[in-house]
C-alpha cells in the first residue's frame, strides 16, 4: 500500500535522507518521492545521490504528497506549519519526526482536520538499523498507524507506544546511540592504553558491541544470563564487572536516560509561537 503513494518530505536533513533510502531500498520509484528544503546544497545532494525531485517550495510538496513527513527542527515548526496550512487537506496523512512536538500541537496548527502520527526514530536509521517508536494523534486510524509502521520498518525496527511515553523513548532510543558511541570510544581507548593499535582497538570494540547485541537479539535471553555465561569464577570478566559495579555503570546509564527524559519534557513544554 505504501508503495502506491506519493511521499513528501518537508526538510531534507539526515533523517529525511534515511527515510528516503529506506523507501528506495523497499522498491519505491524515486519519482514518487518529493523533498522540500531551503538549502540549495542539500537539495542538490538529494537530487544527485537519490534521484528524487527537490524544491524550496514546501507547499508544492504538501499539495502533491499523499503522506507528508515533517522532518524539520522543532524551533521552526510554528512558521513552517503556518505556511503549510492552506495545502493540508483532511485526506492527507502527516507523519512528524520532530522531537518534543506533540500531535495536538500539530493538529491545532493545521486546522484542516488531517490525521497526524508522531514518530521518534534514531540515527542508525541511516543504515537501516534504526529503532522507531510511533503514536497516533486524535484522528489517526489503525490504518494510518499500520502505514507509518510500514514506512519506518524500511529503516529498522518499529514499536507502537502511547504518546505520553514519547519522552521515555527519546531518552532511551532517541539519545541512546550517543551512549553506545561513548561506550565504544572508551573500550577502544582502553585497548590503546594497553598496547593495541588504534585501528585494531576500534575494530575490536565496534565488533564486540555489534556481536553482543546480535547475540542478545537472536537468543531472546535476558542480558544478565548472557553476562553470567562469560563470567568464569575468579576470571578476568568478573574482575572487570566488579570495577564497573564500583563505578555505578548501571546506575549512571539509568541516570543518563532520566536526564534525557527530563530535558525532553522541558523542550515539549515550549509552546509553538
Taken in chain order, the helices and strands follow as: EHEHEHEHEHEEHEHHHHHH
How far apart are the first and last residues' alpha carbons, in Å? 36 Å
Highest CATH level, the class of the largest domain? Alpha Beta
Low-confidence stretches: none
Strand order of the largest sheet: 3-2-1-4-5-6-7-8
Estimate what percentage of residues fall within beta strands.
5-15%
Q: Radius of gyration, rounded?
A: 21 Å
**What is the structural class?**
alpha/beta
The overall average pLDDT, rounded, is 94
Total count of strands: 8
SS summary, helix count: 12
- Please describe the biggest sheet, giving its number of strands, its sense, and whether it closes into a barrel: 8 strands, mixed
Q: Which CATH architecture of the largest domain is right?
A: 3-Layer(aba) Sandwich
**Shape, per Cα inertia axes:** elongated
- How many separate structural domains? 2
Structural descriptors:
273 residues; alpha/beta; Rossmann fold; ProC C-terminal domain-like fold; 2 domains; 8-stranded mixed beta sheet; 12 helices; 8 strands; elongated
Amino acid at each position: 500500500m505504501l508503495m502506491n503513494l506519493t511521499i513528501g518530505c518537508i526538510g531534507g536533513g539526515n533523517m529525511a535522507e534515511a527515510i528516503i533510502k529506506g523507501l528506495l531500498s523497499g522498491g519505491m520509484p524515486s519519482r514518487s518521492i518529493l523533498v522540500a528544503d531551503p538549502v540549495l546544497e542539500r537539495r542538490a545532494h538529494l537530487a544527485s545521490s537519490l534521484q528524487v525531485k527537490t524544491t524550496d517550495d514546501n507547499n508544492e510538496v504538501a499539495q502533491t504528497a499523499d503522506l507528508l513527513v515533517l522532518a524539520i527542527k522543532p524551533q521552526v515548526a510554528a512558521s513552517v506549519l503556518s505556511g503549510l496550512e492552506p495545502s493540508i487537506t483532511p485526506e492527507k496523512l502527516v507523519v512528524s519526526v520532530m522531537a518534543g512536538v506533540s500531535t495536538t500541537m500539530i493538529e491545532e496548527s493545521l486546522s484542516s482536520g488531517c490525521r497526524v502520527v508522531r514518530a521518534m526514530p534514531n540515527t542508525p536509521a541511516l543504515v537501516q538499523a534504526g529503532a522507531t517508536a510511533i503514536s497516533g494523534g486524535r484522528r489517526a486510524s489503525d490504518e494510518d498507524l499500520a502505514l507509518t509502521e510500514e514506512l519506518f520498518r524500511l529503516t529498522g525496527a518499529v514499536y507502537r507506544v502511547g504518546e505520553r511515553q514519547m519522552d521515555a523513548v527519546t531518552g532511551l532510543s532517541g539519545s541512546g546511540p550517543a551512549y553506545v558511541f561513548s561506550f565504544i570510544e572508551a573500550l577502544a581507548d582502553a585497548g590503546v592504553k594497553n598496547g593495541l593499535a588504534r585501528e585494531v582497538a576500534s575494530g575490536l570494540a565496534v565488533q564486540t558491541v555489534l556481536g553482543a547485541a546480535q547475540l542478545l537479539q537472536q537468543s531472546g535471553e535476558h542480558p544478565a544470563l548472557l553476562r553470567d555465561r562469560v563470567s568464569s569464577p575468579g576470571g578476568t570478566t568478573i574482575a572487570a564487572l566488579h570495577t564497573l559495579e564500583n563505578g555505578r555503570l548501571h546506575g549512571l546509564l539509568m541516570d543518563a536516560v532520566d536526564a534525557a527524559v527530563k530535558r525532553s519534557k522541558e523542550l515539549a513544554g515550549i509552546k509553538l509561537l
